[in-house]
Write a structure and sequence with these properties.
The complex is a heterodimer of chains A (167) and B (494). With 167 residues, chain A is mostly helical. Chain A has six helices and no strands. Chain A has helices at residues 6-27, 42-63, 85-102, 107-121, 127-148, 159-162. In chain A, helix 4 (107-121) runs antiparallel to helix 5 (127-148). Chain B starts with a helix and ends with a helix. Chain B is built from 22 helices and two strands. The chains are: A mainly alpha (167), B mainly alpha (494). Chains A and B meet through helix 1, helix 2, helix 3, helix 4 and helix 5 of A and helix 8, helix 10, helix 18, helix 19 and helix 20 of B.
Chain lengths: 167, 494
């Protein structure tokens, strides 16, 4: 087997940490349970113990030759290219821009920013085209949901145009 | 013949023009979204859930039946023309389907998959109609202890028994169970793991989890590892009609696959993956043209596709009659029921008989719509496949975020969506199955409720789970499923 995978160890520790967190949270829950004899803390306790055991099991596998039947670490063996941090970053940036814009700017502004960033992450260099398609798509979706389906979406900066449509 | 009467009543509901329209819209949208590469049926259903919030429950669920079938068929189109199976159940189709497309026989491959889906879907729906009342009668005997044990059985089969790794399957399940605990405890009103965040008191919504894991996780993964690879969409040239020879070779495969797929769908065995491979193996063994396998044998498409659809219908049996989802897609469908305050199960057949049978009747109708819609429109679905990938994923994420945001109009849901996206990325990269997490999220709280109810009735005596014969049987089968593989492995080694 190959050398120890730092990522597998990190993920195993992550599961252990989640289990520990769940156990700490469980300790703060009341245990009185009426006729059943178990309270709202019983199942959380079981899940916490389960996560701790599974985290330990994963860590054991990670330290003893790696997770069993895991995909190879070398991207080329998986038929893929090595991790592209910029692409990953653009997709993430798009989602955060969307999160930040949807309140003040509204659905169309947020959707356009998201669209352009994701397209950039997937290798597009035609920003003007991406923004244009993003505006048309999000505006279409906005009108479809607000006018036809009666589902409220924030109009944001476009609110004056729609005279109070959306929320 | 009670079932027949109920079904006729159901057709009365399903054939109302407005419900027919919802079914039609559902099939079209389901196919349109399902055809997008990287979008499987589970994600299609999750993304289209917000469309229905303002509909009446019957119309919405009929639309969802259409989406479910449409997404299935859309996925196989993508698999055949692009060789990127959107889900594990499509891998078997890809083996021969894509080879047929490469050999210029994309048309007959798509046709046998569409007609096979129709045949198998209809057979499976007939079986569902006959079987459901029997299961309901049986399930009416269930108390909380029986339900709990059955859910434990479902948990173990979907996470530990199937899949590449028991420990990773169980980790995914427990992740889902943990997320299911977040929010207000339904029995005592106690807030759990909400950390004082008001948005978390409502719990983690299945749409946010599913869309985060499937859509955001997929986008992050493909951007990071595959965005610089090129891919080829096979051309759809020549006739889409099947020759007499194609028909002769396809129909026995459809029938055999229906017989394989449906039973596998009804038991909690993780959906359609096993029956599709089983059907592929059977066709490979029985064929008169073994030399064609690996080069594009039509039986190798007809069988797995039909098995996939039969299993997809079979999955609805435990979902509708017991309220137990056995695939990620079924878990999201259960979430759709819960949005309307409906809990599928034997009681729903009695209290909402019109809705349930309307839904079942609309499965027949949906199958027909699928057939008449898809073959003529195949050219459009092929065009959808040719959307460049940068625009495609950008568009998918606009819809994905829309679904998550429209739940509470809160950016907190969008942050959760991103966190689940990171999780989905890691799970995809290290081959941790996501299905058990989605099933755990939706089924976990139901299992806890049944567990505590059973203990309330028995005054806290845990023996209740072993003393009720049906409950004990479920637990015994579960234990056997865990222990047997170990014993078999031990024997092989010595």
């Amino acid at each position: 087997m190959s050398r120890r995978s730092a990522a597998q160890i990190a993920l195993s520790l992550g599961v252990l940490a989640l289990g520990a967190g769940a156990a700490a949270g469980t300790a703060m829950l009341p245990s009185e349970g009426g006729y059943a004899g178990i309270g709202p803390n019983f199942v959380p306790g079981v899940v916490a113990v389960g996560l701790l055991l599974l985290g330990a099991w994963l860590a054991y596998e990670a330290f003893s030759g790696g997770w069993r039947t895991a995909p190879p670490d070398d991207a080329r063996e998986r038929g893929e290219h090595p991790f592209d941090a910029a692409a990953f970053g653009w997709v993430s940036a798009g989602l955060f821009a969307h999160m930040a814009l949807i309140g003040p700017g509204g659905f169309v502004a947020a959707g356009t920013a998201l669209f352009a960033c994701i397209a950039r992450g997937f290798g597009s260099r035609r920003i003007a085209r991406d923004v244009a398609i993003g505006v048309v798509l999000s505006l279409g979706v906005f009108l479809f949901f607000v006018k036809l389906l009666n589902v409220g979406l924030p109009a944001g900066w476009l609110a004056p145009l729609f005279g109070g449509a959306g929320i | 013949m009670e079932a027949l009467e109920a079904l006729l009543l159901g057709f009365g509901v399903a054939l109302k023009p407005i419900n027919l329209l919802w079914g039609f819209i559902g099939v079209t949208l389901g196919t349109l979204i399902g055809v997008l590469p990287g979008v499987g049926p589970a994600l299609t259903v999750a993304m289209l859930l917000p469309l229905t919030v303002k509909l009446d429950p019957t119309g919405a669920l009929i639309m969802f039946a259409g989406i479910y079938y449409g997404a299935m068929f859309g996925g196989s189109t993508t698999t055949i023309l692009l060789n990127t199976p959107g889900e594990s159940a499509s891998i078997a189709t890809a083996l021969e389907g894509n080879r047929m497309a490469k050999a210029g026989r994309a048309g007959p491959a798509l046709a046998t998959s569409a007609i096979g889906s129709f045949v198998a879907g209809t057979i499976a729906t007939v079986l569902l109609t006959l079987l459901a009342p029997l299961v309901v009668d049986f399930a009416l005997k269930f108390g909380p202890a029986e339900y709990f044990s059955l859910m434990v059985f479902a948990f173990i089969t979907v996470s530990a028994v199937l899949g590449a790794s028991t420990v990773r399957g169980l980790t995914s399940l427990f992740l889902g169970l943990f997320l299911g605990l977040v929010g207000i405890d339904s029995q005592t009103g106690q807030a759990r793991f909400a950390f004082g965040v008001p948005e978390l008191l409502d719990g983690v919504d299945v749409v946010v989890l599913a869309v985060g894991l499937f859509a955001v996780g997929e986008a992050l993964y493909v951007a990071a590892y595959q965005s610089r690879l090129s891919e080829t969409v096979e051309r759809l040239s020549g006739s889409i009609l099947m020759s007499a020879e194609d028909w002769k070779r396809s129909w026995p495969a459809w029938l055999r696959a229906s017989a394989i797929g449906f039973p596998f769908g009804t038991i909690p065995a993780g959906g359609a993956e096993i029956p599709t491979f089983l059907s592929y193996a059977v066709e490979k063994k029985l064929t008169k043209h073994p030399e064609e396998f690996g080069k594009g044998a039509i039986e190798g498409v007809a069988g797995p596709e039909a098995a996939n659809n039969a299993a997809a219908t079979g999955v609805l049996v435990p979902l509708l009659t017991l309220g137990i989802p056995t695939s990620a897609t079924a878990a999201i469908l259960l979430g759709a029921f819960q949005n309307y305050g409906l809990q599928p199960g034997p009681l729903l057949f009695q209290s909402q008989s019109e809705l349930v049978w309307g839904l079942i009747a609309s499965l027949y109708v949906g199958n027909i719509i699928l057939l008449v819609l898809n073959l003529p429109l195949i050219g459009i679905w092929v065009k959808v496949l040719q959307i460049p990938r940068d625009l495609l994923y950008a568009g998918i994420l606009v819809f994905a975020t829309l679904g998550a945001y429209s739940l509470h109009q809160s950016w907190v849901d969008l942050l959760m969506l991103y966190v689940f996206g990171l999780l989905g990325f890691a799970m995809r990269r290290w081959d941790i199955p996501v299905g058990p997490a989605v099933i755990g999220l939706i089924l976990g709280p139901l299992a806890e409720t049944q567990f505590r109810r059973a203990l309330s009735i028995s005054q806290g005596d845990p023996r209740v789970f072993f003393e009720h014969p049906i409950s004990a049987t479920f637990l015994a089968i579960t234990a056997a499923l865990i222990v047997l593989p170990w014993i078999v492995r031990r024997f092989r080694r010595t």
